[in-house]
Amino acid sequence: MRWENLSPGSEHSRADTVLFGAEAVTTRTFDAPEFRGVTFHEVRARSIVNRVPGASRMPFEWTVNPYRGCTHACVYCFARRTHSRLGLDTGLGFDSQIVVTVNAPELLRHRLASPGWRGEHIAMGTNVDCYQRAEGRYRLMPGILAALRDHANPFSILTKGTLILRDLPLLKEAARVTDVGVSVSVGFTDEGLWRTAEPGTPAPERRLDVVRTFTGHGIDCGVLMAPVIPFLGDRPDQLRAAVRAVAASGATSVTPLVLHLRPGARQWFMSWLGRHHPYLVARYERLYADGAYAPKWYQRRITRQVHELAEEYGIGPARAGTPRRIRAVGPAGPAGPPAVEPTRLTLL
Ligand code: SF4
């Protein structure tokens, strides 16, 4: 992605020649309590639709990420490393130095209208959360969703942010004309673990309220149970509590994903672990001795347990590569007749 200068003479702006080399950005801070200590770097990009590298394990090819960095501040966030590519710190800097592509909606609309675009699925929330707190101020997603709706372009969103509820009407409009997938990420429901490991996120129960609201409006919503954190969130009673809560929310599926610790995230997570759970450091070093992923036997064990619980509570596990059908709703809402063919939820 390349950057262009914003009006350097504006009141709160300064050309930041450090952040992106020779390119300039506008840097702002806001006094509102929810943004205390957070700095926003507003940039104008030249492209917003990114192709996922071929070697990726992700089941999608195109992504849109209007933000870099995330105030949700999850200690395990795998996207931390991407901040270093911008010359920013991957620890506290990732949590508090937020890069905002302020022209994301117009860039996307332009790309969707270009002759070379073939209407492929676009995944959002795949790098950082597009419904993090910054979205409340910058309001980029309504323009992005409107562009996708107007071009009937299929898309999916994965989020921990309850702010997505603001855009429910737009999402319903889009679901009438194209495939729309919504997934919410809830790895555990343990309150103590949430407060320390995901300090900037809405509480797990609030996230499940999002699921409840979406399903109440006829838009099926899956839960990505991620991450399951070894030795802290993987006890049988914890898994049961999480799956039971997910089922009670009306989620259509639950997909477990064990914590992975890629470079950047690994150092930050391990330093957090050393402060909060020092007795676990050696166990983690052994469990992740071979790299970023927990051993296959451990991943299989968690997957099996979650799938068994999902069956017990009456929700289906999402199976990789199997698109799930979601009800398309007409103008009359959930009880109304389908306006289009059933839409498809792409597994994130
Ligand atoms: S919400 Fe997602 S993107 Fe944001 S810090 Fe947490 S894991 Fe990272």
Please render the helix and strand layout as text.
Layout: E1 3-4, E2 26-29, E3 39-45, E4 49-51, E5 62-64, E6 67-68, H1 80-84, H2 92-96, E7 97-101, H3 104-113, E8 122-124, H4 134-138, H5 141-150, E9 155-159, H6 168-175, E10 180-185, H7 191-197, H8 204-216, E11 221-228, H9 236-248, E12 253-258, H10 265-276, H11 281-287, H12 296-312, E13 316-317, E14 324-326, E15 343-345
Parallel strand pairs: 3-7, 5-8, 8-9, 9-10, 10-11, 11-12, 12-13
Antiparallel strand pairs: 1-3, 2-3, 4-5, 6-7, 14-15
Helix pairs in contact: 3-5, 5-6, 9-12
Bound molecules: iron/sulfur cluster.
Protein name: Rv2578c family radical SAM protein
Keywords: Iron, Iron-sulfur, Metal-binding
Pfam families: Radical_SAM
Please count the helical segments: 12
Helix and strand run: EEEEEEHHEHEHHEHEHHEHEHHHEEE
Q: Nearest-angstrom radius of gyration?
A: 20 Å
What about the largest sheet? 8 strands, mixed
Instruction: Trace the largest sheet across and list its strands.
Output: 4-5-8-9-10-11-12-13
Q: How much is the average pLDDT?
A: 85
Associated small molecules: iron/sulfur cluster
Low-confidence stretches: 1-18, 319-348
Computed structural class: alpha/beta
- As a percent range, the share of helical residues equals 25-40%
Oligomeric grouping of the chains? single chain
Account of the 3D structure:
The protein is of the alpha/beta class and 348 residues long. It contains twelve helices and 15 strands. The strands form three sheets. An eight-stranded mixed sheet has the order 4-5-8-9-10-11-12-13. Strands 1, 2, 3, 6 and 7 form a five-stranded mixed sheet that branches. The longest helix has 17 residues, at 296-312. Residues 1-18 and 319-348 have low confidence and may be disordered. Bound molecules: iron/sulfur cluster.
